[in-house]
Amino acid sequence: MKVLFVVQGEGRGHLTQALSLSKILRDNGHEVVQILVGTNSNREIPSFFLEKTNTVVTAFASPGFMPGKSNKYIGHVRSTLYNVLRTPAYMASIAGIYHAICQQKPDLVINFYEILCGLTYMVFRPKVPEVCIGHQYLFLHPEFEMPAQHKISQKWLNGFTRCTAAGASAVLALSFRPYSEVPELRLKSIPPLLRQEILDTPRHHGDYITGYVLNAGFSNDIITWHAKHKNVRMHWFWDKKDAPEETIVDENLIFSRINDEKFIQSLANCKAYATTGGFESVCEALYMGKPVLMVPAHIEQECNVCDAERQGAGIGSSVFNLDRLLQFARSYDEDVEFRMWENLADQKIMSILEDVAYNVQTGTNVPTVGTSWPLADAEF
Description:
Number of helices: 14
Largest sheet: 7 strands, parallel
Number of strands: 14
Number of domains: 2
CATH topology of the largest domain: Rossmann fold
Radius of gyration: 20 Å
Helix content: 25-40%
Order of helices and strands: EHEHEHHEHEHEEHEHEEEHEHEHEHHH
Structural class: alpha/beta
Strand content: 15-25%
Mean pLDDT: 89
Oligomer: single chain
CATH class of the largest domain: Alpha Beta
Shape: globular
């Protein structure tokens, strides 16, 4: 089976999921023929991803969030203006995605939450089946409880999520635990796609906090907290493009540009983990038995945090109050059930992907764009 990936490049979660699934496919005798990654002026494809893909990686212009003046939370006006002005580039990207599908002739397209891939299926209606993967699809599940606040933003988020999955043959929601299948949405829950290095790396409980921040502006809050707690060792990772490989504040506080191997080793040996509310790294910490503090940077991450708190994976906060994390760590117990659920990931996803490919080849259960994830049902 030949597979083509289309990956949203915002943050690192979708990229690491793509790496994980690429290995699973290769281990089962399949081939990833090309990986298309959506980028914008505020993000670049991490070097660890380029080094480990073992296939052709092509970047394309894709919508993304622009940080506000504080470089912490999303700047909604800046993001809107930026993306409106970039519309011609996005239209070219849609044509480019369709061209890649026609050129590579894959048996399957896997979309890691990239809106332009969904729009490609709406506009050009490729006959190649599409499978969509992401934690965000869990927000559409009738059993999922959304946060009590920001209801309008949640409706926009769910509308966006539906658009990413236009024409999908299957929609796979990564989740902390199993959920029932929703046939009318072609929606199934599967375990997170964690990298093999996370599963294999020995873990120990050290004497320091490690963390990852999506936007570098949060570093000021961390430095402020550290000034009052000089004896607490911390190692943080960020995506700051103009920063050196390591920024040493003092002997107990270091900021490193995101590096795959360094991050995994730091996570495996820390006593607690702090991050903005991305799903993937929280799952990695949960698998390694690390208590987590989450500070969401936008509405999608608020939903992630709400879900993680319900599962006992960690605690949420509006600021990096590491006192709360240290207190939570004292009473934290590892989640053995999550590790058992995660260990089923390879088996579950391969069964679904091979079923989709087989059903399309035999003409069984083939979706029609506009009927399988109708935009008329999107909650805008």
